[in-house]
Amino acid sequence: MSLMAEVGQKAFNLGVPLAIHMDVTFRCNERCVHCYLDHDDHGEMTTAEIKGVLDQLAEAGVFFLTFSGGEVFMRRDFLELVKHARRLLFNVKVKTNGVMIGEAEAQQLRALHVDTVQISLYSHRPEVHDAITKLPHSFERSIKAICFLRDQGLRVTIANVLMTANLSDHYGTQKLAAELGVQYTLDPTITPMMDGDTSVLALRVPGEELVEVFRNPALVPNQEEFCAPPKPPSDEDLEGYPCSAGHSFCYISPYGDVFPCVQFPLPTGNIRQQKFLDIWNLSPQMNEVRSIQAKHLSTCSSCSHVASCTRCPGLAYMEGNMRGPSTADCEKSFYRTGVPTANMLLQGLDKPRGMSGQGSPLLQIHPLAVSA
Amino acid sequence: MSETYIARSSTIAARMLAGEMMVMNSADSTFFTLNPVATAIWQGADGCTPLREIVRERVCGEFDIEPEQAQVDAEQFVTELSGHGILRVSDQPLAGSQEVSR
């Protein structure tokens, strides 16, 4: 086990919130076709409020802090927030589309010793990227930002969301990242919109198309192991927990709402009304999430994939049951290994229905009503 | 005898976890955890307190360790961390380091 993994396990065991994802705004200058956010401002936390939250997070033991949005640079105070976070000695990662990053912003991020800047880029072809972001010339501006940041010596990662609109472009985008000398990640997860609208799920890549991604050695180095049929779960596997959400990780929205994860919209409290550590330690919802072990999962506990599945409890929650299966992950497990999941067998399916999750009952997700 | 002054680098992130200090250097993502003795030296690395005094006050005062051995260990620790660019070392006082809040 690496030192980092050991520390992660220690934080998990102790219930220390080692990592936080904080969206500082939902406003954005792009209108990406797959985005789940409502881009209006319903009462974002002020500069002083966010600084106060950061003080609390440092006190709570948070080490890894990801600033994201929306587009973080839509906030004029964003660099001031980063400066405060760095003064508190957080390891800071920034997720941005880069459109508002010029040479001066890149220099400032470098001077603040930000760990990594992740830039969303959906294709190596400008016309495809701009059609997804709906912002003309966004490709050109994001590429310029990548170059400015890279030239400052910052670690840059291109983050590509795989969807039907850019399905054939992921090799080209990966090649572009290599040519630019930056890292590359690919994520095929498309989530329902915050208002419960599931139409965006039509952009999900059909599971059978993911097989090609799973066979890409640059993305999946240990293919033989990754695609191997699942081993029977051990007792230890069944005693295990699904992921770090609520254990050593959580998400804070621009309105101060605290959730177990950015992809797990179960409200657990609001930081404008309670101290962070009170929510983290005492919220019944957070404690319920923490109590769920693999053996408690309604269908998945009997699934041969239970030990190796990427089952996301947040996606399961959005399907109506945080202890139930996440259909999208069932599909991934099936197409990764060729072995049907318990959820599929229960429904009498020998292959997934396709367009995962669409048609399933999905919760409506709204920001909590908060009076400042 | 010349003194040694140590200060934490501005490139680092740091936090206490269960009595041990986690330290990461953003320049190259090197990641360390410091044991309680090393953590005590790290916390004393304010740039203006001589290493000898840090060892006397924060190490020998808190841990059951011989002063000579503590000084040798501290110097080795400082050399190692400065080699990774996460501690600055000088024979003159340095600009102050940030406090580690927890």
Q: Can you name the CATH architecture of chain B?
A: Orthogonal Bundle
Distance between the termini of chain B: 34 Å
Per DSSP E runs of 2 or more residues, the count of β-strands of chain B stands at: 6
Strand order of the largest sheet of chain A: 6-5-4-3-2-1-7-8-9
Largest sheet of chain B: 3 strands, antiparallel
SSE ordering of chain A: HEHEHEHEHHEHEHHHEEEHHHHH
CATH fold naming of chain B: Arc Repressor Mutant, subunit A
Mean pLDDT of chain B: 89
| Poorly predicted runs of 5 or more residues of chain B | none
* Count of the domains of chain B: 1
The helix/strand class of chain A is alpha/beta
Question: C-alpha Rg of chain B, in Å?
Answer: 13 Å
What report would you give on this structure?
The complex is a heterodimer of chains A (372) and B (102). With 372 residues, chain A is of the alpha/beta class. Chain A has 15 helices and nine strands. Chain A has a nine-stranded mixed beta sheet with strand order 6-5-4-3-2-1-7-8-9, covered by helices on one side. In chain A, α2 runs parallel beside α3 and α8 packs across α14. Chain A is globular. Chain A starts with a helix and ends in a 26-residue tail after the last helix. The C terminus of chain A is likely disordered. Chain B is α+β, with helices and mostly antiparallel strands and 102 residues long. Chain B has a single domain, classed as Arc Repressor Mutant, subunit A, CATH 1.10.10. Helix content of chain B is 35%, strand content 29%. In chain B, the strands form two sheets. In chain B, strands 5-1-6 form a three-stranded antiparallel beta sheet. A three-stranded antiparallel beta sheet of chain B has the order 2-3-4. In chain B, α1 crosses α2 and α2 packs across α3. Chain B is globular. The mean pLDDT of chain B is 89. At the A-B interface, α1 and α2 of A face β2 and β4 of B.
Keywords:
heterodimer, A: 372 residues, alpha/beta, 15 helices, 9 strands, B: 102 residues, alpha+beta, Arc Repressor Mutant, subunit A, three-stranded antiparallel beta sheet, 6 strands
